[in-house]
Fold this sequence. Notes:
- The complex is a heterodimer of chains A (231) and B (113).
- Chain A is mainly α and 231 residues long.
- Chain A has one domain (10-214): Arp2/3 complex 21 kDa subunit ARPC3 (Orthogonal Bundle).
- In chain A, 67% of the residues lie in helices and 3% in strands.
- Chain A contains seven helices and two strands, in the order ααββααααα.
- Chain A has helices at residues 10-32, 39-54, 71-78, 80-98, 106-131, 136-165, 172-204; strands at 58-60, 64-66.
- Chain A starts with 9 loop residues before the first helix and ends in a 27-residue tail after the last helix.
- Chain B starts with 11 loop residues before the first helix and ends with a helix.
- Chain B has one domain.
- With 113 residues, chain B is an all-alpha fold.
- The longest helix of chain B is centred in the last third of the chain and has 38 residues, at 75-112.
- The chains are: A mainly alpha (231), B mainly alpha (113).
- Chains A and B meet through helix 1, helix 2, strand 1, strand 2 and helix 4 of A and helix 1, helix 2 and helix 3 of B.
Amino acid sequence: MHIPDGFIDLPTSAGYGVVAAAGLAVCVRKTADQLDEKQVPLAGLVAAFIFAVQMLNFPVAAGTSGHLLGGVLAAVLVGPYLGALCISVVLLVQSLLFADGGLSALGLNITNMALVTAFGGYATFWLLRKVLPRTRPSVVAAAGVAALLAVVLAALSFTVQYALGGTGGASATTVGRAMVGVHVLIGIGEAVITALAVSAVLASRPDLVHGARDLQPELELRPAGTPAAVS
Amino acid sequence: MAARVGRRQVGFAAFLVAGLAVAFALAFFVSPEASSKPDGLDKVAIDQGFDRTETDHRLDGSPTAGYALRGVGDDRLATGLAGVVGVAVTFLLAGGLTLVVRRRAARREIAGA
Lengths: 231, 113
C-alpha cells in the first residue's frame, strides 16, 4: 500500500507530512514516559521483523498481491505509540534505501500505515479485549480481527487522501470501493499473520506482549495507557 | 493457567536472537519467493487509470532500490541480500532511536527531580 510520488498532489502530501510529523512527535513524547530497558532492543526486533514480513507479498484475487502492514502487530506487542514509531522506521527505510514509497508521499504513507493502523487497530483490539474473556486466545483473536479492520481503515485513509489531492481523475467513490474490496482480502492475510506472530510471542514470552499485560498476575495491574507509578 | 506455572520461560536474549534469526531467514530465504504481482493499491491504480501519474523515485539509483542489491547477477540472491540489509538497518535504526528517546527522557527526569 506504499504510495509512490505523483499519485497525490504536493499540497495534500505536504499537509499530511505535517499531520504525520505531529503524530510522531506525540508518539515520541508518550513513549519516553514509559520506556523500560527491554523495549529498546524489542522495538528494534519488532521493526526488523515487520520489515522482513512486509517483503513477503502473498497472492490475493486476480493478479493482485498483498503484504502485512504490521501496525496492529506492533501495537499489540509494544503499545500503539512505540508501535507506530516502529512502523514509521520501516517506512522510512523502505523509502530511503529501497525506493519503495515516494519521498513526497512519506507523510501520506506514515499516516495510513503507521498512525491509522496502530491507533485505529489498537482501539479495536482494546474494545474486543473488553468484551472477550480475559484469556490468551482472546488476545490472539482480538489482534487478528483488529488487524483485518486496520487494513481496511488504511485503505479508507488513502481514499480520503485521493479525494483531497488525487491526480489521476478517477472518482474517489470508485477508488474507495475498489480499495476496500481488495483490502478486505489482504486484511485476512494480515489477520492470520498477526494472530500467528502474537500467539508465538505469547507462548514464549507472554510478559513481552503489551496488549496482554493484564494477564500477568505477577505484574502491577493498571488501566491501559496510564504510566507506571515507579519504574 | 496452572499447567503453565512450571514452564520455564525463554531468556530475553535468546528471545531476541531467535526473533532476529526468523526475520533474517524470512528476508533472505522467503522474500525471493514472494508474489511479484501488483499490490492492492497498485492494482486499483492500474484499474482506475491513475498509475500513469506515478513519477520516478528520486532514490531509484540507490544500491538497494527495488529490493535488489546492485551488482549481484542472480535475481533471487540480489533480493535476499537486499532483505538482509533492510532487516539489519531497520533493527539498528529502530533500536537506536528508541535508545535516544529513552536516554533523553531519563536525563529530563534527573534534571526535573
